[in-house]
């Protein structure tokens, strides 16, 4: 996608040099506890480097518009989080948007600002709908989905073998943030 620039943020590809900064996101228990079972808690910078290495290697082979990106604050270059677009298992038909923000940067609208730009970009690639899934007690994630103009479409256990709330958005529903 190159870089997506918003008012306060840049969404860009991951770089191995992001390992220390990314650890503040993926190494935080407050973030890791909500992620899907296949995403493990990252214990140290070396483990984070391995994770980033795998993401960077995988990126060119993903079905567009799938990918994983870093969210960086323009003002000071702080890496505030990451987001991804993935095909949801097991059917791999639905694209899931997911966000992770370092806990000390929650409550500033960064997840919605970055996601909005990524959703717009994904819809420009011809995708007709995007989904977000959240555990029922993940109120912050559910809040972010709603702020993005996503519609609640139900509960399911089909994706990751756990009960998840499902949200969906289509191009016509994309709101300006
Ligand atoms: C889910 C998660 C990304 C949400 O982070 P967040 O910062 O609450 O999300 P948003 O970007 O929507 O920010 C909204 C908050 O910022 C506030 N805000 C401040 N400035 C804002 C602005 N300019 N624009 C929008 N919101 C703004 C809103 O009022 C809202 O605050 P509130 O939660 O107190 O009501 C974060 O909690 C997280 O990383 N959780 C762990 C991982 C996870 O669960 N991911 C989702 C499932 S994969």
UniProtKB/TrEMBL annotation:
Domain of life: Bacteria
A GO MF term: acyltransferase activity, transferring groups other than amino-acyl groups
Coiled-coil residue windows: none
Keyword Transmembrane: no
Alphabetically ordered keywords of this record: Transferase
SUPFAM superfamilies in the cross-refs: Acyl-CoA N-acyltransferases (Nat) (SSF55729)
Pfam families reported in the protein's UniProt record: Acetyltransf_3 (PF13302)
InterPro entries associated with the record: Acyl_CoA_acyltransferase, GNAT_dom, N-acetyltransferase
All residue ranges annotated as the N-acetyltransferase domain in the record: 9-169
Keyword Coiled coil belongs to the record: no
Identification of the protein by name: N-acetyltransferase
Organism: Halostreptopolyspora alba
């Amino acid at each position: 996608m190159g870089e997506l620039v918003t008012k306060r943020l840049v969404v860009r590809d991951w770089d191995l040099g992001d390992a220390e900064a990314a650890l503040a996101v993926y190494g935080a228990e407050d973030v890791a506890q909500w992620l899907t079972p296949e995403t493990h808690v990252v214990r140290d910078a070396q483990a984070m480097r391995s994770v980033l290495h795998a993401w960077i290697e995988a990126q060119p082979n993903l079905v567009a518009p799938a990918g994983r990106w870093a969210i960086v604050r323009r003002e000071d270059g702080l890496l505030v989080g990451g987001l991804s677009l993935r095909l949801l298992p097991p059917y791999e038909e639905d694209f899931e948007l997911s966000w992770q923000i370092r806990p000390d940067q929650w409550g500033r609208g960064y997840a919605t600002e970055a996601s909005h730009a990524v959703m717009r970009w994904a819809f420009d690639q011809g995708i007709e709908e995007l989904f977000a899934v959240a555990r029922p007690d993940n109120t912050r994630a559910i809040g972010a989905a709603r702020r993005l103009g996503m519609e609640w479409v139900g509960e399911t256990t089909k994706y990751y073998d756990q009960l998840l709330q499902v949200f969906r958005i289509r191009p016509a529903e994309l709101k300006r943030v």
